[in-house]
Design a protein that fits this description.
alpha/beta, about 10% strand, two-stranded antiparallel sheet
């Protein structure tokens, strides 16, 4: 059941959006003013003020991005995004989660990532999901219970991974229909989307996709199989036709960084209709891991600069989940901002950390958040004072080793039960090399912040 604040906020903002639709860019400022008044958290109020400033700068690429949302998204979808993502998950959900977390002495995440199935219709080179048994799955009842318990804790954002989640697309649509106050996002290889599915997404309005793509045709088909890129492009055309929200999910590695960090790549993604893009870097999980795919420190640094440049020049929302530790104050896993539940029900701190103390089939979601491994995470975060070295595996492997050992967590990679000592040993050398680049970049970031906060005239110095 929605809280009184959610109900009031939803009604006000929905009516506001109806008003905005008449003349979007002219009337949007008034909607932002209402949103600022409804916000409880000071940082949410600050977001509203910054957004208002952006909209008043005609040449700002973020203003162009907002215009894209009004042109390319279906009106019903826009309203559901506002109601579920901005109000329920943000303005109302986050303060409630903080209050409940303080009461129980644990972090309540903003989002839950879960795997409906470990099965997949592709076999991508170096994919960690290939380590799970293909028969593993979370039944509809378990998925529904997780969402119901999550909403009681203030969680209204649910993300699917796998395996290929859309193998279970009927159940996923059913869940989105039942929990129409939540926002759902599914990572997908994009090969199972058709017009009927896109039409249902449009009708629901609260379901979006992050489509895995590794660059252009050569780079994508190299890891995902011949013909995959063309199918993904066709899928994007279908989704754009129906005005539903989608974006790209790209793993950058030693063989594709130049391609996926190029202007041509981002321009193509925008042209195809992507409104967001998630960048991940390759993580060497499992017995089939390809260490040669690890991005070099030079490649990771190049992506650091490229994503920041794109944010100033391209009308698309981009995140780099390793290089953006600066904005999240380090690692977000372990229940701090999100957690992962695999297809077997094991509750893991992160999609890339396959160790667990508890199974969701045996405990409540709240009890899972209090498990020993999660407490280890929350007591140590951030894992490094340099937030450009956020990860307890790739950047600080000793941290993950100690947490797993001290919590008694077990390996959840059912195909090879990879000991934490074996996994972390793979990352020691690359973490040491990246530390040199990251420490220099971190000093650069801190200097820029000091300059932006300084009211003096630096031109007079020296």
């Amino acid at each position: 059941m929605k809280s009184a604040k959610q109900l009031v906020s939803t009604v006000v903002l929905r009516e506001g959006l109806n008003y905005v639709e008449k003349n979007p860019m002219q009337n949007l400022n008034k909607l932002i003013n209402w949103g600022e008044k409804l916000a409880v958290k000071e940082n949410h109020k600050e977001y509203a003020r910054n957004f208002r400033r952006i909209l008043n700068e005609p040449e700002n690429n973020w203003r162009t991005f907002v215009e894209r949302l009004f042109v390319e998204l279906d009106p019903h979808v826009r309203k559901k995004l506002l109601e579920n993502f901005v109000v329920n998950s943000g303005l109302a959900g986050m303060p409630l989660a903080e209050k409940i977390g303080a009461k129980h002495g644990c972090s309540i995440p903003w989002a839950i990532l879960m795997d409906p199935t470990a099965a997949c219709n592709l076999k991508c080179i170096g994919c960690w999901a290939a380590e799970y048994e293909k028969t593993s799955s979370l039944d509809y009842e378990t998925l529904n219970r997780i969402i119901e318990e999550g909403k009681e804790l203030g969680i209204y954002m649910y993300i699917y991974s796998g395996g290929e989640p859309l193998i279970r697309k009927k159940d996923l649509l059913k869940l989105a229909r039942k929990h129409n106050d939540c926002m759902f996002l599914s990572f997908t290889n994009g090969t199972l989307v058709d017009e009927d599915f896109a039409r249902e997404m449009q009708k629901l309005g609260n379901f979006s996709l992050a489509i895995s793509v590794e660059g252009f045709e050569e780079e994508t088909d190299m890891r995902r199989g011949k013909g995959t890129f063309r199918k993904v492009m066709e899928t994007m055309d279908i989704l754009k036709k129906y005005g539903v929200p989608f974006g790209f999910s790209t793993c950058y590695h030693s063989q594709n960084t130049t391609a996926v960090g190029s202007d041509e790549y981002i321009d193509l993604m925008i042209e195809k209709g992507c409104i967001f893009g998630w960048y991940f870097t390759y993580i060497p999980l499992g017995k089939d891991a390809k260490l040669e795919l690890l991005a070099s420190p030079e490649q990771r640094e190049w992506m650091f600069y490229r994503v920041r440049e794109f944010r100033e020049t391209k009308p698309i929302f981009l995140m780099d989940f390793w290089n953006d530790g600066e904005f999240t104050e380090g690692c977000i896993a372990g229940g701090r901002k999100y957690l992962h539940i695999n297809a077997n029900g094991d509750v893991e701190p992160c999609a890339f950390i396959h160790y667990s103390n508890v199974n969701i089939k045996d405990v409540s979601l709240l009890d899972a958040l209090k498990c020993d491994l999660f407490r280890q995470y929350q007591s140590r975060q951030p894992f490094n004072e340099n937030h450009l070295r956020p990860c307890p595996l790739l950047d600080n492997p000793h941290q993950l080793r100690e947490m797993v050992q001290q919590s008694g967590a077990r390996s959840t990679q059912l195909m090879d039960l990879e000991p934490v000592e074996v996994l972390t040993d793979k990352c020691i050398e690359i973490s040491q090399k990246w530390a040199v680049n990251a420490d220099r970049l971190w000093q650069e970031v801190q200097s820029q912040k000091e300059c932006s906060n300084c009211s003096g005239d630096c031109s007079k110095v020296g």
